[in-house]
Amino acid sequence: MPRRWTPAEERSKSLELKRLYVRENKTIGEIGKLLGIAEQTVFQRLERLGIPTAPERKATYAARRRQDVVVPKCYTAKLAEFFGIMLGDGRLAPYQVVVTLGTKEYGYARHVCWLMEELFGVLARVAVRGSGYRDVYLGSLDLVEWFKREGLVHNKVRFQVDIPAWIFSRREFLNAFVRGFFDTDGSVYALRFGTQLSFTNRSAPLLRSLRRALLLLGYHPSMVSSYCIYLTRRDEIVRFFREVRPANIKHRQRFAAILGR
User: Fold this and answer.
1) How far apart are alpha carbons 182 and 94 in whole angstroms?
2) Strands of 134-139's sheet, edge to edge?
3) DSSP secondary-structure letter at 19?
4) Is 104 exposed, middle or buried (0-12, 13-18, 19+ CB in 10 A)?
5) Per-residue pLDDT for 256 more than 90?
6) What does DSSP say about strands 228-231 and 194-200: parallel, antiparallel, or unpaired?
7) 23, exposed or middle or buried, with CB in 10 Å at 0-12, 13-18, 19+?
8) CA dihedral 225, 90, 46, 207 (to 10 degrees)
9) What are phi and psi of 56, to 5 degrees?
10) Is residue 156, in this structure, part of any structural domain at all?
11) Residues 136 and 171 both lie in one domain
């Protein structure tokens, strides 16, 4: 974890960002390149130092309002699944919707690309980091603003996000949301005397709502414990894979291996 700034460092960072962002009117992306840090880090520093963001004042603002992206007009099961993905491994950058996946999730990255195209009408891009992790992303200021209005934030842990209320309006929405969330923040594994399915997240309100969702779907989840919820009844885990139908192949393969023991 990075160390805290000293008061002198904080003043220096504040003056630097005010000069670049306010007086020189540089964009967050331009500042990131100048300082050698990620756009998200620049955005977080602006928030931390209390410097208001004003993207509409930047010369590139109009160009970021793409005309080819479809902003959702109604709630659907596919959208519920994508919210599950976003509340698991997704994030909002200043101008992008991003899902970060592991080194062995190439197949699932393709599924996320397909889902984003189905929902938003354009192809998402995939960037592979030096570590092998994959960022599936779509640049659209309008889309980022829409997701913020729907309750998503730039820092999910700090602001303790929750599941949107509309997802509880239909059983198919609940199933789809749980699928997306399990695909990104879930796991299934063998215990010495059984099998366990888990969901892990650092947002307490989200986990409490997820537990409620599982109860409404007829499961018997554990209480929230150390940022986790568990399903341990074998018949319910089998039903989970049959009815929720996880899209992440790594979960399906692992569960098949457990059943075949």
Assistant:
1) 26
2) 90-92, 96-101, 134-139, 125-128
3) I
4) exposed
5) yes
6) antiparallel
7) exposed
8) -20
9) -65, -15
10) yes
11) no
* Averaged pLDDT, 65-83: 93
Let me know if 218 is exposed, middle or buried by CB neighbors in 10 A (0-12, 13-18, 19+). exposed
CA distance 110 to 108: 5
Q: Verify that 146 and 172 share a domain, yes or no.
A: no
Q: Are residues 186 and 242 in the same domain?
A: yes
Beta bridge partners of 91: 98
Whether residue 28 is found in the same domain as residue 83 = no
Q: Which of 164, 157, 152, 68 is nearest to 116 (CA)?
A: 68
Is 195 in a helix, a strand, or coil? Answer: strand
**Calpha distance 93→41 (Å, rounded):** 10
> Are 147 and 196 members of one domain?
no
CB 195 within 8 A of CB 237: yes
pTM exceeds 0.85, yes or no = no
Range of the domain at 44: 12-59
- Mark whether 202 and 246 lie in a shared domain: yes
Q: Which one, of 93, 86, 91, lies nearest residue 55 by Cα?
A: 93
What's the Cα-to-Cα distance from 107 to each of 113, 250, 259, rounded to whole Å?
10, 9, 22
- Of 94, 68, 76, 58, which is closest to residue 170 (Cα–Cα)? 76
- Per the structure, the count of domains in the chain is 3
Question: How many other CB atoms are there within 10 angstroms of residue 133's CB atom?
Answer: 14
Name the least confident of 45-54, 178-187, 201-210. Answer: 45-54
Residue 152 has a pLDDT of: 93
Tokens of 200: 């892990």
Burial 168-177 (b: 16+ CB within 10 A, else e): eeeeebbbbb
- pLDDT-based confidence at 2, cuts 50/70/90? low
